[in-house]
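Quick one, tokens below:
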């Protein structure tokens, strides 16, 4: 019976982590969505940090830490495009045993300006990952002495688990369409991005204990987002959608952000910097609704979202999913990057 319980515990742990990590504000960590987004933004350098805490109300929370840096190469030297390069690091820790994945990924992309309004990008991602587990927090019947649980008592159980490493590869493609503003003050720009990615091309094995259960399912992601500036106002609409298909799992997330320009940069002195605020939310179908807010000032941005669980797990969580926060820096200032150039085909 103990062997069966141990087996089921490991199967449950592995099944819970068979899918990749996900972020509510997935578009803030684009390399984890599609390697073709590497270097695809208004600016030369981008750095993002993200922290996510999930289901703390029902015990040991799932915690995810992530750092991403990327940029464009040869932007000022190549007329018809440039190269993108990026690095992404994340650590995910789950449950009582601190079953965790540490992953470091290097992404490369090639961006081409098809014409004044259209651009395309393809990207490759190479990753190194390590899984780890700490069984010392497990509790066993043999550690109950008849009156109370004694953590110092031997469990008489032997659990074989060694941290293991594996290499992973992924690829993606991205298309963008954009039109600039008709005048400097009309704020009627339009931009759209559509992408697809294929993660875990080789289905790497994590070599835990259970054969095929150790292999990561390949994952497909399809995503789109749009920036719609409302003419002669300071308001823009930003609808977005992403779908993940990984083995038997499906995840669909839709979002809408309402972005308002609080202040424009002073045209002559540059003393006053642009400021914008976005308010809206994301809905992960069948799982959670997450109100969110993002504040931008010049090169700096900070965003916050809070998952409110709407699935059958609500009876245990009380509807509390968990918070997520990101901090982003883009240099030069993304508000004015490319101003005065034929940049309508470039990515927002």
């Amino acid at each position: 019976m103990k062997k069966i319980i141990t087996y089921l515990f490991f199967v449950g742990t592995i099944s819970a982590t068979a899918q990749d990590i996900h972020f509510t504000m997935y578009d803030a960590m684009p390399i984890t969505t599609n390697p073709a987004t590497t270097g695809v933004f208004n600016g030369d350098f981008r750095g993002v940090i993200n922290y996510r805490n999930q289901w703390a109300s029902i015990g040991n929370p799932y915690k995810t830490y992530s750092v991403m840096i990327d940029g464009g190469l040869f932007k000022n030297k190549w007329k018809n495009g440039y190269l993108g390069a990026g690095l992404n690091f994340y650590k995910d820790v789950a449950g009582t045993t601190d079953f965790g994945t540490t992953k470091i990924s290097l992404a490369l992309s090639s961006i081409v300006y098809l014409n004044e309004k259209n651009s395309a990008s393809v990207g490759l991602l190479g990753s190194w990952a390590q899984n780890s587990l700490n069984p010392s927090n497990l509790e066993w019947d043999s550690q109950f002495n008849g009156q109370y649980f004694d953590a110092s008592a031997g469990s008489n159980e032997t659990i074989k688990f060694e941290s293991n490493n594996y290499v992973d590869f992924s690829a993606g493609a991205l298309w963008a369409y954009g039109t600039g503003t008709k005048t400097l003050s009309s704020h009627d720009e339009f931009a759209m991005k559509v992408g697809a990615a294929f993660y875990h091309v080789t289905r790497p094995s994590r070599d835990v204990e259970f054969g095929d259960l150790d292999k990561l399912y390949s994952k497909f992601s399809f995503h789109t987002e749009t920036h719609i500036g409302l003419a002669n106002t300071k308001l823009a609409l930003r609808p977005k959608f992403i779908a993940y298909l990984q083995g038997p799992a499906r995840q669909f997330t839709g979002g809408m952000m309402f972005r308002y320009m609080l202040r424009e940069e002073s045209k002559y002195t540059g003393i006053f910097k642009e400021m914008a605020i976005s308010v809206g939310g994301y809905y992960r179908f069948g799982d959670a609704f997450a109100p969110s807010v993002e504040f931008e000032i010049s090169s700096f941005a900070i965003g916050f979202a809070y998952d409110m669980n709407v699935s059958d797990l609500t009876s245990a969580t009380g509807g509390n999913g968990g918070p997520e926060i990101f901090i982003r820096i883009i240099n030069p200032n993304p508000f004015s990057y490319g101003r005065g150039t034929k940049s309508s085909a470039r990515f927002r």
